[in-house]
Structure formats: C-alpha cells, structure tokens
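Q: I'm building a small set of examples for a reading group on sequence design. Run inverse folding on the following structure and report the sequence directly after it, with nothing in between.
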C-alpha cells in the first residue's frame, strides 16, 4: 500500500466554499445545457428486495428515453441494480445501448461479508454483463485503523472486475470526519478505483456539497501527482435541478471541463431525474407540466 499522507481538511473553509457554489447565477443557455448534461450523468437505480425483471426493464426504458424526442433529452448514463438483476438489465438494454449496466456488489450496502463472497459476487456480476461495479469499502476495518485491509480488498475487487469499471463507495456518512473522507478517497484511488462515490443511499447523511468538495479536491491532487483522472459520483440526497446545477458548477471550478462528462462524473439520485425533466420541459414549452406527466424513476 502506497497511500500518501492525507492533507488535513479545514472544516470551516470547506463548508463555506461548498455553500458558495449553490449561490452562482447561471444564464438561461448555460442552465439548459446544464440540465441536459445532468440527465446524461445520471445513474438510475433500483435496489429493493421487491425488484423484478419487469421493473428493471421499465427502468432501462426510462434511462434510454427519459422524454419524448422533441425535447432532445439525452439518455441517462447507467442503470444500477443488484447482481441478480444484471442479466435482465443487459437483456433489456441490448448490445447497442449507450446506457451502461452497473451492479452493486461486495455485500452492499453494509459490506459485512466474507472477502471470497465479495469477489465471487463481483465476478458473477461482471460475467453476466455489468459494465460497472459499485463496491462498498469495509468501514469497520477503516474505522479500526486497518487501512491496509481496506486497500487490499479494493485492489482485489478491482482485479475481479475484469474489464468493468470500479466505483468505490466510501459511505461518507459513517466516516465521521472530513479527514477520514480524504484518507479513504486516497486509499480508493491508490488501490485502483476508477470512480470514488459518496454513499450507498441507505445511510444518512449521504451526499453533501461539502463532503463532495473534499473528494473532488482529493481527485484533483491525485491527478496533479499521477496524471490519472478519477471519476466522482455523489449519491443520495440530491433531489432537485438547482442542487444538481450547483454540483456541476463545483466540479467545473474544482476539476475543470475534463470532468464535465458522464465518463468522469455521475449523479446517483433517481428521484432527481423527474425534477430535471420538469425544468427541461419548462424551457421548451414555456410552462411546467404536472408531476403526474412524468413516470416514476
């Protein structure tokens, strides 16, 4: 494990700077482009015990066609499902879809299972067609001070992914401090993660502007040190288009335009999509549609 010493995070400055991004004023053209970009960056998710092949197929259709063609809404980035639903998602999307299939793995959301099971779950999900694997780190090991175990497990899961990209979920709401978030971000990047992700969406607090800023700055510094571009995914708690646009402003000002692409930034917030679609329809038609106009994510 070759994790560089973490930079201590100034909590006051981080929270003040993060709050400032939400106050930016955007011109109409920039806002419209931002709304479309946000759609293209969304991972639509269904992670429930009552998931069925039909529900997954419906989610895949919505990801491919969020609105009727006249609104020129792009397809979403991915659908995210449990491993047992990967084959159904792959079948529903087909081989020519721009929408990726993502699968949670490694004992999601707690991560409290044996490593051999985590590795097998990852291999099976990738083997059945997952383009991306969303793993959870061992927060128990991290908080107990065993960073080497966390590093080694991420590296092993990365190898088990094969050609699939690996998103490493830190579950920041359980890491307690910004310093811990910074350290966990570094471990995840050094161990081979292609993305770092705030949360499972099952724990509160989930994504916040401040914790996302800490992770973005870790990505920036890692890029300066290595030349490697790591992706970022805030997940959970982002519910409206105003928040989404604030996140995009923060990404632009912290990492630059190279990260304003679905290959390097994602939103894990299915409830966000309908609000963004409502705003997009308002731009085109001049008035809001009822929320009943939009299907549930």
């Amino acid at each position: 494990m070759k994790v560089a010493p973490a930079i201590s995070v100034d909590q006051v400055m981080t929270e003040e700077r993060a709050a400032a991004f939400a106050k930016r004023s955007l011109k109409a053209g920039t806002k419209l482009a931002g709304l479309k970009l946000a759609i293209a960056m969304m991972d639509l998710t269904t992670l429930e015990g009552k998931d069925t092949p039909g529900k997954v197929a419906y989610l895949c259709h919505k990801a491919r066609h969020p609105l009727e063609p006249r609104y020129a809404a792009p397809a979403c980035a991915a659908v995210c499902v449990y491993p047992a639903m990967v084959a159904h998602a792959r079948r529903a999307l087909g081989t020519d879809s721009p929408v990726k299939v993502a699968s949670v793995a490694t004992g999601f959301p707690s991560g409290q299972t044996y490593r051999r099971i985590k590795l097998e779950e990852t291999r099976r999900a990738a083997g059945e067609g997952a383009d991306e694997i969303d793993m959870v780190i061992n927060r128990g090991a991290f908080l107990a001070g065993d960073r080497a175990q966390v590093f080694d497990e991420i590296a092993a899961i990365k190898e088990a992914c094969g050609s699939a990209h690996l998103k490493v979920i830190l579950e920041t709401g359980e890491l307690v401090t910004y310093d811990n978030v910074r350290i966990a971000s570094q471990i995840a990047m050094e161990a081979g993660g292609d993305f770092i992700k705030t949360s499972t969406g099952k724990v509160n607090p989930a994504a916040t502007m401040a914790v996302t800023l800490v992770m973005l700055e870790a990505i920036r510094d890692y890029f300066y040190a290595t030349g490697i571009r790591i992706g970022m995914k805030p997940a959970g708690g982002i519910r409206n288009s105003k928040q989404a646009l604030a996140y995009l402003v923060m990404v632009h000002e912290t990492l630059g335009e190279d990260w304003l692409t679905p290959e390097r930034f994602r939103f894990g917030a299915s409830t966000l999509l309908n609000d963004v679609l409502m705003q997009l329809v308002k731009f085109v038609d001049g008035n809001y549609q009822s929320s009943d106009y939009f299907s549930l994510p």
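The chain has one domain: 11-293.
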